[in-house]
Amino acid sequence: MTAAMFFGVAVIGYLFGSIPFGVLISRVFAHKDVREVGSGKIGMTNVMRAAGKKAAAVSLLLDMGKAAAAVLVAGAVFNSHAAVVRDLVIWDDYARTLAGLAAICGHSWSVFLKFKGGRGVATFVGGLLAIYWPAAVVGGGLMLIIGFRTRYMSMGSIVGAVAASFMTMAFSILRIDFILPYPPISAVTYTMLCAIFIYVMHRDNIIRLMSGTERKIGDKAGAEVASTSGHFK
Fold first, then answer.
1. What pLDDT does residue 178 have?
2. Where do the domains of the chain lie?
3. pTM, 2 dp
């Protein structure tokens, strides 16, 4: 039963994450296909290029929301059976972590977009909001502050993800209670895996940052898909 439930929440998380809000929002706001602009990714930065700031903000919130929803659904599924099967209580945190990771995979390799998509940053933050929100606030805040201050959202995405990971790890090891009880090991696992994932997904951006050729926020996007930035994707 437990294995089937884990499989179920993974599928739910993946399907939630696969919803291509960036594509849908760009079509509604600007009648454009975000995949044909800039980096060809479906996240906030590319939506901003294709359809403007308002569309980008809506896309960001929806991409965060779908991951948070997946995590909450996973928790509800396991908690609904916990009264009958007590052992499920100890697996609740891991089920929510799995759902969050599955949502990121769905966003990055959407079944609705022939297994293409974005880079999973907004979905990472959304999932973390539902798992351990203090780290999501710190990490997501740094992503936006550094991204918009430097105009390199890739830099903000990487720094924010790493900061969230270190914060969660430190609070868990030191047993620091900050509004909420200290984060469980499943939350540490989630942030560590996601920080590595985001770094790998931005490896091309890192190369361009080092060479000074990375595209900045606000740079005009060409009509053709370019192998450039793509952040909060």
1. 72
2. 2-211
3. 0.89
